[in-house]
């Protein structure tokens, strides 16, 4: 209706003008006036022809709306100077000379002057209004182009600032962290070679392996930070990406009393986003074990990874029993999903890391912490469309539970950009 109104309303106005001036009896004046009004239906497609077609209605039927609307449309759509001047002169002539032409009296100067002024205003007004509307549209278009250009410049400036910050972070990571980790690796290698104690040698070997792996991941991370655009995507593809297959090794090297209950096979998701979800599960376990080493040394730990048929929020997760144990329905669903995993496809993963109270006799390591680990895990879960719950239990321990759906959220590259 809104699209038809600008086309139909001028036609109705022209018809009303024709009927008011010439009446409703069918004669020559009414015929040319109605024809001029009907021609306005195609004025946007053929503005010049429609204007010429309305001139007989002005000359014979003495109507004004149809030729003025046609001239306005011509000025708004085809604003050629010579064309507009010629059409203005035609409208003035059709308005100035009477029908029939034999009624024209050349000596009636006063009347002729008034009619000429009226005809000039009648032709100038629609031309001026049409040119004004065309200029307004052009200005609006230029303002829109300018706005898009400013937004593009803002994005380019933000990208430049981001690239500069990435380069600064890469330098800091390389100059500080890489140097310290290299020293740790060298010292561990020296101890491994020089010591006679088998237990100390094994510990030094573990430290050296962790240091080498950390340096490798750090090298790839520095490459990602320094790269830009397609190079950044290529660097991310080349970076080592841990998954559930590496969880046993991570738990073995954690130096904690961990019971690993594995209800899902790594890479068995078989759906879009499985690798990204496994990566998120690995990072969740990694951060939780790090926090346990910091805040609950000597505590017993249970790590469980299960498939879930539908990822739910913490409130719908069967909650916790009063003694801090997992509700039977949640565990039972995970066990059933693990047992008949070959018969149906899981929709996501549930990861739970639970530790008891710390050992009072154990020494608390003086490890620094910024309090950002759980925040980062929660952000990672939200990016993937999942949830994360972290809270204390009634027995003095702590539980971290996360659920990640397959095939939703953003990709790993988008996660890196978001972080």
From TrEMBL:
It comes from the Bacteria. One of its GO terms (molecular function) is kinase activity. Residues 314-344 are annotated as: Disordered. InterPro entries: HATPase_C_sf, Sensor_HK_TwoCompSys, Sig_transdc_His_kin_sub3_dim/P. It is an enzyme of class 2 (transferase). Its EC number is 2.7.13.3. Residues 165-228 form the Signal transduction histidine kinase subgroup 3 dimerisation and phosphoacceptor domain. Keywords: ATP-binding, Kinase, Membrane, Nucleotide-binding, Phosphoprotein, Transferase, Transmembrane, Transmembrane helix, Two-component regulatory system. This is histidine kinase. Residues 314-336 have a biased composition (Low complexity). The chain crosses the membrane at residues 47-72, 84-101, 113-132. The lineage of its organism: Bacteria, Bacillati, Actinomycetota, Actinomycetes, Kitasatosporales. It catalyses: ATP + protein L-histidine = ADP + protein N-phospho-L-histidine.
